[in-house]
Amino acid sequence: MDQAYIENRTYAEINIGDSARLTRTLRPEDIQLFAIMSGDVNPTHVDPEYARSSSFREVVAHGMWGGTLISSVLGTQFPGPGTVYIDQSLHFSRPVALGDTVTVVVTCQKKFDHNNHIVFDCLCTNQDGLEVIRGSAEVLAPTEKVRRHRIAMPEFTMNDRQARYNHVLEITRGLAPISLAVVHPCDVESLKGALMARDAGFALPTLVGPEEKIRQIASQLGASLADCRFVDVPHSHAAAEVAVKMARNFEVEALMKGSLHTDELMEAVIDKATGLRTHRRISHVFFMDVPTYPRPLLITDAAVNVEPSLEDKVDIVQNAIDLARMLGISEPKVAILAAVEMVNPKMRATLDAAALCKMADRGQITGGLLDGPLAFDNAVSMVAAKTKGIRSVVAGQADILMVPEIESGNMLAKQLEYLADALSAGIVLGARVPIVLTSRADTAESRTISTAIALVVAHAKRKQK
């Protein structure tokens, strides 16, 4: 058949015994899409845990998924365009499981000249030749020939956000919860994030802020504060100072920003006398799970360093490499971003990128593979890189995106989150303890993922001691 066209067979062209067939393999997304379209979320079809205890012992397709394959044959090829369904009778002999290949055969059984009706025998078998569905269909067959260009349907992508979220949290498997100071959790999302991290087994939270106000918010949520310790302080400034002091005194292994401004928390963190500075420049990393990108993406620095110098960038990229390695990426690929991929003396970002790559060659930055300058498209798209003639082990498959300054980084991260449905998390590195640093507009989900990353970092620091 010419796949560019869709063509029918008229009533007069069909003889008794003529047939047509269609073969299709059942994929997980077929079941999910059918459930979404029909509203049939019977756990037999969509819940693997429940399905294991059912009579089938595994997830199986909706019975009518096979029925739609019969409809597809009748409506698109035999008889095809112009066909009108009159009647359908089906018997379901056995289930169709994931990976099963179903072959549908539709055979002309009877013709009625007075009204152009045709009765078809319908048989669906699996890859073992066993009957899955048997039945009959009666249709009003077309009498006029139709041949038209096949309409290109929109591309459909399944985006299971909950499954992606659960997958990200797998990085914490086998790790014990850490002590976490939550700084001024005085709105719903920040408190919810701390409690979700507790419930997930990531952290034992110490809530640092006005206790009465926090309890009121918990009451509004209907949430339990079990296993939460309180440090009652009157306002956000005091909460930041007390939480930082707790981290200095090894009372907690991580901090989480609540409903206070980032500047207010970071002012206490970077204080030279009482803060949490180390020999490293403090920097922020966005962890992004983008549904259209095949691996996690780290973006740095988009929240702390406004316009970093070359010296600052050395620490920023090293912090990100160290985090990637903690997350299981053995040799992270780092794309140093700029507007163009050629070194241009008039563009500082390209000069810094070239210098960072040479510093990595000389061992001043370790643990990762660096390349730059690279424009964003060349960093994440192999096609774009090849089109521009870029030969690089980093181009098209970056794990880390090093941005020139805070504005471009922040816009990039927010675009991925709001326009590409990326799961995002934010964490500050280079301090004595990891700091969960998210936007006040971020969801509890984002805060929970951020805490999961802090858990991994805190355990890595334990091993270094």
Task: Please describe what this structure looks like.
There is one protein chain. This protein has three domains: 5-149, Roll (Thiol Ester Dehydrase, Chain A), CATH 3.10.129.10; 164-277 and 455-459, Isopropylmalate Dehydrogenase (3-Layer(aba) Sandwich); 280-430, Isopropylmalate Dehydrogenase (3-Layer(aba) Sandwich). The chain is 35% helix and 23% strand. It contains 15 helices and 18 strands. The strands form three sheets. It has an eleven-stranded mixed beta sheet, with helices on both faces. Helix 6 (188-199) crosses helix 15 (444-464).
How many discrete structural domains? 3
Mean pLDDT across residues: 92
Number of helices: 15
What is the helical fraction, as a range of percent?
A: 25-40%
CATH architecture of the largest domain: 3-Layer(aba) Sandwich
The CATH class designation of the largest domain is Alpha Beta
The strands making up the biggest β-sheet line up spatially as: 10-9-8-11-18-17-12-13-16-14-15
Number of strands: 18
- Strand content of the residues, in percent? 15-25%
Largest sheet descriptor: 11 strands, mixed
Distance between the termini: 68 Å
SSE-based structural type: alpha/beta
Over the alpha carbons, how many angstroms does the gyration radius reach? 30 Å
Ranges where pLDDT stays below 50 over 5 or more residues in a row are none
CATH superfamily of the largest domain: Isopropylmalate Dehydrogenase
Mass-distribution shape: elongated
